[in-house]
Amino acid sequence: MPIVGTSLRSAAASFCEHLNEVLRLTITDTPLVVFTVGKNPTKADIAFRHHGRPQEASLHTKYGRMWLYLGQVCTSTLDDAGQHVLHTVKYTYTLRRDDDENPLLRWEYDKQPGNRYCRHHLQGPIALPIKRDLHVSLNDLHVPTGFVTVEEVLRFCIVDLEVPSRAPTERPITPPEPGDHDLRPRKTWDEILTESYERFKSDFAPRGQL
């Protein structure tokens, strides 16, 4: 079933709780927070926030420290039972170098962008050799992508940037003993991300109806 709740905020909170568990088991304790305005909000922001302000999660990569930002804007529709069904209408995921204020990579989606560029796209301050004597910044283009999930961004961080994961790369050979209080993840980071992604494709189907 899709992500539902008695209100937009409660549905968004369920989604947020799920993503925070995935983040906690893989690369960061920095929490995503649900933010709404008014008694009957029409949208819910889910993002890294601290005291109401956007924040980034610090990552230790093979290239040095980088900063990750995750943010989504969600709305809801009512189903036949009067439950709020959650829908993602915007997202912004960024990776920033430690020595630069601007993102190196920025994945974005806008369900209603207001113009003709690709709704799902990738940008960054990267010079593309369009011609031998002409380079165009990736920030001036909207390179098309598919719908990018949080799970795939985390996979990129772990595999390509070599961010250490809290979950193991391989499953432990021996199962935990009775009474073992070792709380480390027993699943691999690949299993955690794969299972979360599969849940996105099935239980969280409205996120994919984009």
Short description, anyone?
Helices cover 20% and strands 33% of the residues. It is an alpha+beta fold.
From N to C, what is the helix and strand string? EHEEEEEEEEEEEHH
Helices and strands: which structural class? Answer: alpha+beta
Our measurement of the CA-to-CA distance between the termini, rounded to an integer number of angstroms, reads 17 Å
The biggest sheet, with number of strands, parallel, antiparallel or mixed sense and barrel status, is: 10 strands, antiparallel
Helix tally?
3
Q: Which assembly state applies to the chains in this document?
A: single chain
Rounded mean pLDDT score: 90
Helix content: 10-25%
Poorly predicted regions are 206-210
List the helices and strands and how they pair.
Elements: E1 4-5, H1 8-26, E2 32-35, E3 44-50, E4 53-54, E5 57-61, E6 64-78, E7 84-97, E8 105-110, E9 120-123, E10 127-131, E11 134-137, E12 143-144, H2 150-159, H3 189-201
Antiparallel strand pairs: 1-7, 2-3, 3-4, 3-6, 5-6, 6-7, 7-8, 8-9, 9-12, 10-11
Helix pairs in contact: 2-3
Q: What can you tell me about this protein's structure?
A:
The chain is an alpha+beta fold and 210 residues long. The protein has one domain. It has helices spanning 8-26, 150-159, 189-201, and strands spanning 4-5, 32-35, 44-50, 53-54, 57-61, 64-78, 84-97, 105-110, 120-123, 127-131, 134-137, 143-144. Strand 6 (64-78) and strand 7 form a beta hairpin. Helix 2 (150-159) packs antiparallel against helix 3. The longest helix has 19 residues, at 8-26.
